[in-house]
Automatic annotation (TrEMBL):
Signal peptide interval: 1-30
Catalytic reaction equation(s): Hydrolysis of terminal, non-reducing beta-D-glucosyl residues with release of beta-D-glucose
An individual GO BP term: carbohydrate metabolic process
Organism expressing this protein natively: Punica granatum
Family recorded in the similarity comment: Belongs to the glycosyl hydrolase 1 family.
Name of the protein described by the UniProt record: beta-glucosidase
Classification via PROSITE patterns: GLYCOSYL_HYDROL_F1_2
Source domain of life: Eukaryota
Enzyme class, spelled out: hydrolase
């Protein structure tokens, strides 16, 4: 039902979220080329990712307080599912690190739950939360797995939302910086890669324009739900502005007090699409460029050039906050690297007529229509690995080629359809191949992380779909994990063997047995 509403919409932030990176159709395999990790530059990092609320569980254990995503899930907006238990990663982290070792990951990307480390968002550090993240980091390092930490993955402490409206208030800058400081101070001797905030572009549209994601703020006629508070025309811009200022503030602090000693790097993660004009008509070509400025330039232009794209200033007008000269200086260059979240591509059609409408939200300001792509979530979409290559070329050519990590890429399947996720392997192979081409053409990509390591709680889909290399059996009180075909495939790649897109992996007999057992059980 959730998905239907979104389908009916003008366009959906859903498209911005990972739930739409669907399985590839089997005919769409991009090529048959095999490659190995030795085709990538030395030091190129391969890993896999999860996030705190999606994997940890233990939601009200050991002093953790609710985040806005807890509230959202408990209100029933995720098909009744919650992250209360999720994969129980809070208790099973050792077992999970062992699986990472068996898989052969170089690195693991996870996020810290702000309200576990600092309950209520501000004030004293929770010793149990501190201990958990210390344990996890130490366990990773003990096995030679590099931690890549995201500080904020959509899970604002509910108390800060209640107190002053979270990201729409300038007060967030101070609280976020204080939280970041605790992380740098406590974990920075062992963590070298910090991403401050995940996907501000998606988060702002879902949470403050369309109201489909927490904190569910919006205003008529734009929200998909009845919104009692918010302002779809201005708050998304305000939220991203405060996010950029928060990022810059944390980065400034890191550079001043920690970076020299800890030798780490600080970045921010942005959601990316490949975009193609629907036709070769000039207005569609211009519209495709404009969509990049709105969807990506909104976040990345300030980081690289110190200001929003010109076309945004023009179309959004006074609703787009302005950087003071000092803010502009602090935001510009505040990211040592950019984390890219990439799943899919979209066709763009001009809709300049929407600029005649009042009031306008982000979508009407962008003045394009998304087209040529089924987001129903039920049918398959073709692989579009060219989209990732395009994004990487864009960073190289338009954004001065900063170091980038692909922090999420992967394919969705129904949660417990089969362990033989050959479609996921085709997808990952095709996208890794596109990345390899881009790297060979000069892209400054430094690493690649699949989403997700385990079948986690998906933020908008709960336990209905999955992206994991490991199936987590929710019917088993012990939540046992089972490797899927893609875990074996990725493992083979990580161990240096050459891999293609097809079935050239024999699952070990034990796993074959398990697999047919599971397959029977879930049909
Ligand atoms: C939204 O509000 C209208 C009018 O109050 C009501 O009829 C409708 O059921 C509400 N819809 C939802 C999804 O709450
Ligand atoms: C939303 O914000 C804009 C710009 O500040 C303002 O003009 C408009 O009246 C607000 N709309 C609502 C519904 O509050
Ligand atoms: C646009 O032009 C290019 C190059 O001439 C061509 O390859 C492509 O098929 C055209 N696309 C459309 C949608 O007509
Ligand atoms: C490779 O890089 C060059 C120089 O930046 C660029 O002009 C060209 O379009 C790139 N090739 C591809 C296939 O993206
Ligand atoms: C399949 O997944 C659902 C959650 O979406 C779960 O309730 C169900 O028990 C699972 N079935 C099997 C056989 O694993």
């Amino acid at each position: 039902m959730f998905r239907r509403r979104v389908m009916d919409s003008r366009w959906a932030v859903i498209v911005l979220l990972r739930c739409c990176a669907l399985m590839a159709s089997s005919s769409a395999a991009a090529d048959d080329e095999s490659f190995s990790r030795y085709d990538f530059p030395p030091g190129f990092v391969f890993g896999s990712a999860t996030s705190a609320y999606q994997v940890e569980g233990a939601a009200d254990e050991d002093g953790r307080t609710p985040s806005i995503w807890d509230t959202f899930a408990h209100a029933g907006y995720v098909h009744g599912a919650t992250g209360d238990v999720a994969c129980d990663g809070y208790h099973k982290y050792k077992e999970d690190v062992q699986l990472m070792v068996e898989t052969g990951l170089d690195a693991y990307r996870f996020s810290i739950s702000w309200s576990r480390l600092i309950p209520y968002g501000r004030g004293p550090v929770n010793p149990k939360g501190l201990q958990y993240y210390n344990n996890l980091i130490n366990e990773l390092l003990k096995h030679g797995i590099q931690p890549h930490v995201t500080l904020y993955n959509f899970d604002l402490p509910q108390d800060l939302e209640d107190e002053y409206g979270g990201w729409v208030s300038r007060k967030i800058v101070k609280d976020f910086t204080a939280y970041a400081e605790v992380c740098f101070r406590e974990f920075g001797d062992r963590v070298q890669y910090w991403a401050t905030i995940n996907e501000p572009n998606v988060f702002a549209i879902g949470g403050y324009d369309q109201g489909i994601a927490p904190p569910m703020r919006c205003s008529p006629p734009f929200g998909f739900r009845n919104c009692s508070n918010g302002n779809s025309t201005s708050e998304p811009y305000l939220a991203v502005h405060n996010i950029l200022l928060s990022h810059a503030s944390a980065a400034k602090l890191y550079r001043k007090n920690f970076q020299t000693k800890q030798q780490g790097f600080i970045g921010i993660n942005v959601y990316t699409f490949g975009t193609l004009p629907l036709t070769n008509a000039t207005e569609d070509v211009v519209a495709a460029k404009r969509s990049n400025d709105f969807l990506l330039g909104w976040v990345v232009d300030p980081l690289v050039f110190g200001d929003y794209p010109q076309i945004m200033k023009k179309n959004v007008g006074a609703r787009l906050p302005k950087f003071t000269p000092l803010q502009s200086k602090e935001v510009k260059g505040s990211a040592d690297f950019i984390g890219l979240i990439h799943y899919t591509s979209i066709y763009i059609k001009d809709k300049s007529s929407s600029l005649n409408m009042e009031p306008r939200d982000f979508n009407l300001d962008m003045a394009v229509e998304f087209s040529g792509w089924d987001i129903s979530g039920s049918s398959e979409v073709p692989l579009m690995p060219w989209g990732l290559a395009q994004v990487l070329e864009m960073f190289k050519q338009d954004y001065r080629n900063p170091p980038v990590f692909i922090y999420e890429n992967g394919a969705r399947t129904p949660r417990n359809a089969t362990l033989h996720d050959t479609g996921r392997v085709k997808y990952i192979h095709a996208y890794m191949g596109a990345m390899l081409d881009a790297v060979r053409n000069g892209s400054n990509t430094r690493g690649y992380f699949t989403w997700s390591f385990l079948d986690v709680f998906e933020l908008l889909d709960g336990y209905g779909s999955s992206f994991g290399h490991y199936y987590v059996d929710l019917d088993d009180p012990d939540l046992r994990r089972y490797p899927k075909y893609s875990a074996h495939w990725y493992s083979k790649f990580l161990r240096g063997e050459s891999v293609g897109p097809n079935g050239d992996i024999k699952m070990m007999s034990k796993h074959n047995l398990l697999d047919s057992h599971r397959a029977r059980a879930v049909q």
